[in-house]
């Protein structure tokens, strides 16, 4: 397992350098999306409708009722003096890679980032401790979501011994106390999980939608969207891009058409930038055969 202590220097000479994405030309956002190129190979893909979905709508309604209770405030980075949104994005990209190496369940990743952002929202963090907050957030999320969570020594190792076990323990306690031990919160992944059942997505469609919401996880600016909005927009784009004949989600989401289309436009920008952006963890993950290589899907912009 490769270990990484990520560099977050203020001069932006970071471990991962950002490249300038090609300009996105103005486009109308409607039926023209159906002209995007669908997958170029025939796959024997099981349909997700075999999974229990009789409670999907009730579960989704409950998620909608509780989703805003523990969300970080958009624009919170303004209070930070030593770190910025680019450093946060680099950290989340690295956490995606760590999550993959540890073979954790998907919800652990989304909960990790929620905990990270909620802590950073009101607590000053020096750049030297940003990675410490990140791995401590993943430790908390792992204990909450995993049957066999990684041990502290695993997080020490994955950071190339940048921190000692006691530092991670102390930060874990600090974060939990700040959050008042309120950990449960609906994520875009949980909403997508339910939406996929409601719309009868097959696995290819589900993984493509998951790829999009994971790209949004890295981007700080997506904090302005509710998790349900991001998930609904990913479903909308999946149906358009793949020309997927699955069921409509309209009656099962609280997001308006305008909210979905606005968020979907921003997700399209992420898909375009994914080709050149230096933050490649999500793209590499979803380029694997186990995810039907959905990140390699050629899309016209």
UniProtKB/TrEMBL annotation:
Residues 93-177, 190-269 form the Cyclin-like domain. SUPFAM superfamilies: Cyclin-like (SSF47954). Keywords: Cell cycle, Cell division, Cyclin. It holds the Pfam family Cyclin_C. GO terms for biological process: cell division; mitotic cell cycle phase transition. PROSITE patterns: CYCLINS (PS00292). Signal peptide: none annotated. GO terms for molecular function: cyclin-dependent protein serine/threonine kinase regulator activity. CDD domains: CYCLIN_CCNB1-like_rpt1, CYCLIN_CCNO-like_rpt2. Coiled coil: none annotated. Gene3D superfamilies: Cyclin-like. InterPro entries: Cyclin, Cyclin-like_dom, Cyclin-like_sf, Cyclin_A/B-like, Cyclin_C-dom, Cyclin_N, Cyclins_cyclin-box. Belongs to the cyclin family. This is Uncharacterized protein.
